[in-house]
């Protein structure tokens, strides 16, 4: 086993190498440590990773009461607001729109329908924790909401509806709305929790090889009920990822269809079958979209899950969000066993998947299909599936290899990026979960993670790993790059499916010890160095998203954009850092206007088409508000006609739905523009 010294470079007026923590001038902490953090596990080899050298002083421990405040329901949406930095200045060459998705409603039915709605809930919204029957049992069960932040660059002004001139230069336009999923609308009308299919799993002490990976507080391995199709056991919250591509904005959740949103106002347009590519409305899709930056294509996948064998469906679309012509943009592959996979990555020619070994309790699967009772993670090797993409001449050809087992299953893998080397070797970087606390029930009752001990008992250890595999030669190696606790790994999106040098992630403040996402860290995989910035102990950053700087083509010449939650004040900001100077901390902090929950994944749309003026956004947002209020009565008529059967001379008969769809084709009006590439 080889090992490489992973030296952390820090700066305080000058570059300090191999030195541990210090305070920087602007209320930020940076830290470094001298470590041998990279260990390799090659085929037929096994050895313990070399422990790091004497650890360095670290930032202050996280304020867990402040962190716990990041799991509170958002009771008021943000329609449209122009915000000015309270610290620093927004760069003129930061142009585009940042999107982020995440759970935001933890007390079910807490956003009432419009006042003129025919159906009104019997109980009004209540504060979190007041009525525990309305509280979800895990943050991941919360309904999804989307943040959008448009950076206007040098646009100096635009006129609003009143004709007043609004100065946009150096400012950002904020909006935040819930995704109006079918489940969200159902619960808001009833004013109570309706979907309880995952509650027994969330309260279970999962005594298997996965430990607390199954109910991990930040991103659980068990994400949906195993009953397939459209049903009240499987609640599509659309809360995991926001994707903008081909002028379309989607939100994703593992186990159901994506939802399509208006890119400006964030109003929900409905479930999307991706222009008819997904043939069945009850199909389960993953919560990941992978972009091939070089070919300007986007790929999705879904799995038809069955205990004996599963079918993997891989979809590929061109820059206009049309299915590519080769193989109609779809390949289907049979994989062994129950395929629970939520993430993947792509290279020039392949899609890469990692499938953990699962044991299925046949009786419980047949009776309940509750994940906590029906399946368990095994102490066995996981499989890597290398699938030729729909545009490949060997489209659909799949090769499977075993990953040598090192004592921890490769479950809940979070892919960062993958690429092909000159000899055909596929390299992919991931955040790997390490199971802990097996047999110990996680925190399944609000408030979550109010102490460090509670957080550590319900959250898995994570680390940055690199894997190598060859499509014909098989598994090569897996290397632990860093043992620091990290979350939400990202790269410059222009390097997607291409060789990358830099990885950005949210990092815990306790080094290798499990701690919540708080600071921002950057790995240089060429020089094997790491730089970090940490805010104050009561502040917590989310996923760091790379935003390109207009006119710059270097891999780290742009900016890092992230949300920052202040758990003491219960406010949120957007922080902007220079990607090539992370340790210097934010160059701008912009208030959002409301407190945002911690959230999950997002994206940055850097194109001019995503640089709308404040007036354009405000006008669309007002229209969305009016349409929701005025359209609520008609929407309820449609729902009631399909959900309330009535009797016609004997048997119960449900009349056909008056919805805007083409039932025989599996299409709706909101799919037409996707088919035509409009």
From TrEMBL:
Q: Does the keyword Oxidoreductase apply?
A: yes
Q: Does the keyword Translocase apply?
A: no
Which interval of the chain is the signal sequence? 1-21
Co-factor binding comment = Binds 1 Fe(2+) ion per subunit.
Coiled coil segments of this chain = none
User: A Pfam family this protein belongs to?
Assistant: RPE65
A GO BP annotation = carotene catabolic process
Q: Which residues bind Fe cation?
A: 601
Q: Which UniProt keywords apply?
A: Iron, Metal-binding, Oxidoreductase, Signal
Region (Disordered) residue spans: 42-63
What does the record give as cofactor?
Fe(2+)
Taxonomically, which superkingdom? Eukaryota
- A GO MF term: metal ion binding
Family named by the database record? Belongs to the carotenoid oxygenase family.
Name recorded for this polypeptide: Carotenoid oxygenase
Q: What is the lineage of its organism?
A: Eukaryota, Sar, Stramenopiles, Ochrophyta, Bacillariophyta
């Amino acid at each position: 086993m080889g090992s490489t010294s992973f030296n952390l470079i820090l700066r305080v007026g000058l570059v300090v190498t191999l030195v541990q923590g210090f305070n920087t001038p602007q209320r930020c902490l940076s830290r470094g440590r001298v470590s041998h953090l990279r260990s390799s596990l090659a085929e037929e080899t096994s050895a313990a990773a070399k422990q790091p050298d004497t650890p360095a002083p670290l930032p202050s421990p996280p304020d867990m009461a402040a962190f716990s405040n990041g799991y509170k329901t958002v009771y008021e949406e943000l329609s449209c607001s122009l915000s000015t930095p309270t610290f620093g200045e927004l760069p003129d060459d930061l142009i585009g729109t940042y999107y982020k998705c995440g759970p935001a409603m933890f007390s079910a039915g807490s956003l009432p329908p419009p006042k003129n709605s025919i159906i009104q809930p019997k109980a009004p919204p209540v504060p979190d924790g007041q009525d525990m029957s309305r509280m979800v049992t895990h943050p991941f069960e919360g309904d999804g909401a989307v943040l959008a932040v448009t950076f206007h660059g040098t646009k100096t002004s635009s006129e609003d509806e009143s004709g007043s001139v609004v100065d946009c230069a150096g400012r950002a336009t904020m909006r935040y709305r819930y995704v109006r999923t079918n489940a969200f609308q159902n619960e808001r009308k009833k004013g109570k929790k309706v979907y309880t299919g995952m509650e027994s799993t969330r309260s279970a002490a999962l005594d298997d090889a996965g430990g607390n990976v199954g109910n991990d507080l930040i991103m659980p391995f068990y994400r949906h009920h195993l009953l397939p199709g459209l049903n009240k056991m499987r609640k599509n919250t659309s809360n995991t990822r926001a994707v903008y591509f081909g002028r379309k904005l989607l939100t994703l959740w593992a186990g159901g269809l994506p939802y399509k949103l208006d890119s400006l106002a964030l109003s929900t347009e409905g479930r999307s079958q991706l222009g008819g590519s997904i043939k069945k409305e009850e199909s389960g899709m993953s919560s990941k979209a992978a972009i091939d930056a070089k070919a300007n294509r986007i790929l999705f996948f879904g799995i038809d899950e069955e205990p004996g064998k599963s079918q993997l469906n891989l979809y590929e679309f061109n820059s206009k969000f049309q299915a590519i012509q080769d193989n109609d943009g779809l390949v289907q592959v049979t994989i062994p066993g129950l395929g629970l996979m939520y993430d993947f990555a792509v290279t020039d020619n392949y899609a890469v998947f990692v499938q953990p070994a699962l044991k299925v309790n046949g009786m419980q699967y047949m009776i309940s299909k509750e994940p906590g009772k029906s399946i368990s993670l095994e102490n066995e090797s996981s499989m890597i599936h290398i699938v030729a993409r729909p545009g490949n001449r060997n489209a659909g050809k799949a090769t499977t290899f075993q990953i040598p087992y090192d004592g921890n299953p490769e479950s809940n893998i979070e892919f960062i990026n993958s690429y092909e080397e000159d000899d055909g070797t596929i390299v992919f970087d991931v955040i790997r979960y390490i199971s802990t606390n097996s047999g110990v029930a996680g925190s399944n009752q609000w408030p979550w993670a109010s102490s460090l001990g509670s957080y550590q008992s319900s959250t898995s250890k994570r680390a940055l790993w690199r894997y190598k595999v060859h499509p014909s030669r098989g598994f090569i190696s897996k290397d632990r790059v860093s043992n620091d606790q990290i979350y939400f790994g990202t790269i410059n999106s222009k390097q997607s499916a291409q060789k990358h040098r830099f990885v950005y992630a949210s990092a815990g403040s306790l080094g290798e010890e499990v701690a919540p996402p708080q600071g921002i860290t950057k790995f240089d995989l060429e020089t094997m160095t790491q730089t970090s910035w940490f805010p104050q102990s009561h502040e917590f950053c989310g996923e760091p998203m790379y935003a390109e700087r207009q006119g710059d083509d270097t891999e780290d010449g742009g900016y890092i954009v992230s949300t920052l939650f202040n758990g003491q004040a219960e406010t949120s900001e957007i922080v902007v850092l220079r990607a090539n100077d992370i340790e210097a901390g934010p160059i701008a902090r912009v208030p959002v206007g409301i407190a945002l929950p911690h959230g999950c994944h997002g994206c940055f749309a850097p194109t001019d088409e995503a640089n709308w003026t404040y007036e354009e956004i405000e006008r669309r947002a007002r229209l969305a508000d009016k349409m929701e209020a005025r359209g609520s009565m008609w929407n309820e008529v449609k729902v009631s006609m399909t959900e309330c059967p009535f009797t016609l001379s004997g048997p119960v008969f449900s009349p056909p739905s008056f919805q805007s769809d083409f039932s025989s084709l599996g299409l709706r009006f909101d799919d037409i523009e996707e088919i035509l590439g409009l």
